[in-house]
Amino acid sequence: MPKKSSPQKSREPSVRALAGTVFITRQVHFNSAHRLYNPTKSLAWNQKQYGMCTNPHWHGHNYVLEVTLKGQPDPVTGYIMDLARLKKVLHTAVVDKCDHRNLNDEVDFLRGIIPSTENLVIAFWHEIAPRIHLPARLHCVRLYETPRNFAEFFGPAHH
Amino acid sequence: MPKKSSPQKSREPSVRALAGTVFITRQVHFNSAHRLYNPTKSLAWNQKQYGMCTNPHWHGHNYVLEVTLKGQPDPVTGYIMDLARLKKVLHTAVVDKCDHRNLNDEVDFLRGIIPSTENLVIAFWHEIAPRIHLPARLHCVRLYETPRNFAEFFGPAHH
Amino acid sequence: MPKKSSPQKSREPSVRALAGTVFITRQVHFNSAHRLYNPTKSLAWNQKQYGMCTNPHWHGHNYVLEVTLKGQPDPVTGYIMDLARLKKVLHTAVVDKCDHRNLNDEVDFLRGIIPSTENLVIAFWHEIAPRIHLPARLHCVRLYETPRNFAEFFGPAHH
Amino acid sequence: MPKKSSPQKSREPSVRALAGTVFITRQVHFNSAHRLYNPTKSLAWNQKQYGMCTNPHWHGHNYVLEVTLKGQPDPVTGYIMDLARLKKVLHTAVVDKCDHRNLNDEVDFLRGIIPSTENLVIAFWHEIAPRIHLPARLHCVRLYETPRNFAEFFGPAHH
Amino acid sequence: MPKKSSPQKSREPSVRALAGTVFITRQVHFNSAHRLYNPTKSLAWNQKQYGMCTNPHWHGHNYVLEVTLKGQPDPVTGYIMDLARLKKVLHTAVVDKCDHRNLNDEVDFLRGIIPSTENLVIAFWHEIAPRIHLPARLHCVRLYETPRNFAEFFGPAHH
Amino acid sequence: MPKKSSPQKSREPSVRALAGTVFITRQVHFNSAHRLYNPTKSLAWNQKQYGMCTNPHWHGHNYVLEVTLKGQPDPVTGYIMDLARLKKVLHTAVVDKCDHRNLNDEVDFLRGIIPSTENLVIAFWHEIAPRIHLPARLHCVRLYETPRNFAEFFGPAHH
């Protein structure tokens, strides 16, 4: 039960803090080109493995990224983390590097990675995690390649 | 594997029950005004902490509330809980108190609480939980402040 | 941290593999008729239990099915499973049997089951699981009866 | 330009009216079973014409209905029509008759009509129009059979 | 038919222009508090007219604003208007004045107006129109108060 | 009013036809890479005009295409056009040529066109229109580049 405030005899303002572990999520988006191919394999192998997704002339997506943090609401602010600040963190860590860019060729932290949604959520996690400071913890990175398919990563310690 | 029905020699109707723990979720919505501020702090502190969210003249949201229960489908009904009844519970517990209202000033169970999404999901949990009866269990309260940001609470026992 | 590639002296192409457990989800949809009723009970009992959902003349839904797999991205492909192939699996296992069909009367694997969303996710799990092969694992079946209500099942071993 | 209020020497409250023709839209939803078939034709003809949509065991949809009215905002209320009242009109005219029902067999005003989305919007128009009173005018009935397909009707006078 | 390019003997780059009138739409959003009431009427009148929407302690919405322009794509740029620039125009004209604000009390261009969705689209039109320059023309202002209800205004000349 | 059927003395099945002009819309989607640039202009001009949208390494989008036809429901079928067939037409005319492709380099009917959303809707119209046969008429092509921006074209005769 939330902590009850005792009857206030004085007229001093007060704030009731609520206890518990809460998860907060912020959504951002970016539009990028990519292709799926393994450069150590033949064109035929890539064609068979990825079909149209290996088009050497690229295709693209409106990616939607949702990042979840875990923590306890600060008794003074009511926040785990200011989501406006989280939005800036996500822009710095991921969006500004990926938006209107080619994920295979132009994003340094993605060099050499096949940019499947599975690999992207892991790579994004490692860009975001160093920017999240206690008491908040990074809990989940979710990436929608399209509204009908997405990947989620809960960190390297999660199995 | 679902329990197989034995070949029916008689023509009596029968029902196959399926075993397992399932999570069901119902979504409701309400439109409210609020502001984020800590009355024990100065106006300048609140301005710096919350920016425009501390506007003393209020702003508002179309909140979307999703509540998840956990249980086993009743072998006779196929339900964990009738979601039409859950909708009524959510209206009684939260929506009727918050819809078209001011969350800071008009909602008794929110008195003295900074109405951040983090605090709201905890407070809502405590309003809803006493109204959920075994064998169903309250599992998660999720609240969207906007389509791009939401909080989730899995109960005071969850860390 | 993702595995760093050592400086490349040769000009051979290479691929950086990323480690971690990832969850991928694919969404499909189908439109079906159904009714909720227990044929071992009286009409009055069903009317009281299910209200309009027991209409003997049927009603229907645009069902949305989301299926989540769990695994590690293959270092050669970047995939846990090709989602185009998962889409075919879901069509074979569930959609082709249920789309534009009557869930009570026409779907063999649903015979004798009250087609509540709770029961459907369990039944769907058992149709899909045998078609998912290691190293990928079936993690969750989520079914939306409408955008405002859905059920999730994480398998018979999950409590 | 909106009518400017002259500087107020008295302290009497006042209201500024804005002029113009505005369109307001309200969305409601209902879940129904139906099938597409022409009973004056053979089963083979229906199969060829409608494919799976002619399933004699029915299928169904979560229909979404959007109704648009046209008018000038009342200078006293700011409303063309109270949308809460329009919601009730739509429930009386359409939703209460169609929700959780079989559109082919149970809806009197649809008797003998092939319930394609095209025919439904016309039939719904004729149920709704008599309930809309001047100065508001019924402008459009839009019906989504699924999120990916819908029909619109602007009245019998519109070509 | 699009203008066919004549066979190019030279290797000079060229651009094919396409002719036609096109409508482009940009969506922005803002979160505000408001109440519906006519200050020239009694409290009882307002209660009867607006019900809960007249709550003197305010309620609020996540408003979604869609603005449509009409024009011919510029043969040199392919644009009617750069939508990034349109987004800035909409922020200057409407969003920056309304976001996180109280529509009744804090927005100068809304002074004295009952902030129904009908009145808001007219008022927004008059703020936006002077900022749209030929050859583009303002065609429609659409405002969603919630996902289930919205108003549209096509300008003072449209009946 | 819908045509009333005269009381049926015989037991022959009959069908009531409804009169009126109806608009039907089908939605399809495709994922593509593109860039906005005018090859007759300098790199600096393109940078200034298009900003990040001119990235020579491409970016991309999940495009959503909605096509509307206009007609009278056929009294025998209830259809203006079978939307399953319309979906095939749209796949042949547009989707199969654009999906997982580079709109600037790989789509013959887009050669030499700056692939802004404005130009794309005109080009798509001209691919689709010859495939729509009376009595149905092509009425509108709507293309979402992202959920927050889209273009519409009502044909070369519309001003």
From TrEMBL, chains A, B, C, D, E, F:
Associated pathway: Purine metabolism; 7-cyano-7-deazaguanine biosynthesis
Catalytic reactions on record: 7,8-dihydroneopterin 3'-triphosphate + H2O = 6-carboxy-5,6,7,8-tetrahydropterin + triphosphate + acetaldehyde + 2 H(+)
Keywords: Lyase, Metal-binding, Zinc
Organism: Lacunisphaera limnophila
Alphabetical list of InterPro entries matching this protein: 6-PTP_synth/QueD (IPR007115), 6-PTP_synth/QueD_sf (IPR038418)
Listed GO MF terms: 6-carboxytetrahydropterin synthase activity; metal ion binding
Name assigned to this protein: 6-carboxy-5,6,7,8-tetrahydropterin synthase
Superkingdom of this protein's organism: Bacteria
Cofactor: Zn(2+)
Family stated for the protein in its record: Belongs to the PTPS family. QueD subfamily.
